Each structure stands twice: as structure tokens, then as C-alpha cells.
Amino acid sequence: MGHSMGALVAMEAIRSLAIANDFETIEKISPLMLASPDIDVDVFSTQLSLLEAKPEPFVVFASRQDKALTFSKRLRGGHPRVGGAENISELEAAGVIVVGQSSVGAGDNANHATFASSPTLIRM
User: Fold this and answer.
1) How far apart are the first and last CA of the chain?
2) 19-29 burial code (b ≥16 CB/10 A, e <16)
């Protein structure tokens, strides 16, 4: 599990395993959950392209209401973040399960930790 910038660390670890051709270890990672990932969508696409086999299931929690990711996007010249829910169709096409949090009641003011504060998502 990786949250926010921790999702980038998790993906970089998996990318490093892929570069080392250690797909056996990648296959043992199950499930992989990235919550509100603060990862550039192009960087994420490159990371995914290196994976012959992805962790199963591979889940991304994303929200258009995430204020921290909106701020991060602005800081980075307006480039979308994976957790900002702007590229859901591309994620799903790559075999990633996307859990949309935009309409789920949040427990934090920034809507950045909804995955851990929403009773609905916690039950899930």
C-alpha cells in the first residue's frame, strides 16, 4: 500500500524489480493498493509499461475532490496526478481497478485520506 507520495515510492520499487527482471517477486505482491497517488500520469504510464505482470489486484483510489492533489497538480504546472481521477479510462485499460472516491463522504478537510476515513470505503 502506498498513499500520496508513498505511492510513488511503491511504484518505483516495483519498477526497479521489473528492470532487474524480478517478475517472480512482483507476482508475490498482492494486492497493491495506491491511495490518492501523487504520481504524474505520464510517469505512471511509463512505470506500468515496464511491468510484464502486474500485482493482482492492482487498485487505485482516486478523487476529483482531493485538494492536496489539486494543489500538487498546480505546483507541477497543471500536469494531472494519477489520484486526481482524470485518467480513469486509461488506468482501467491497463488493468488497474479504480475506486472512485469523489462522491464518498470524506473524513478529512482535504479529501486526501478518504480511503482511510470514510466508513463506506473502510467496510469495502
Assistant:
1) 15
2) eeeeeeebeeb
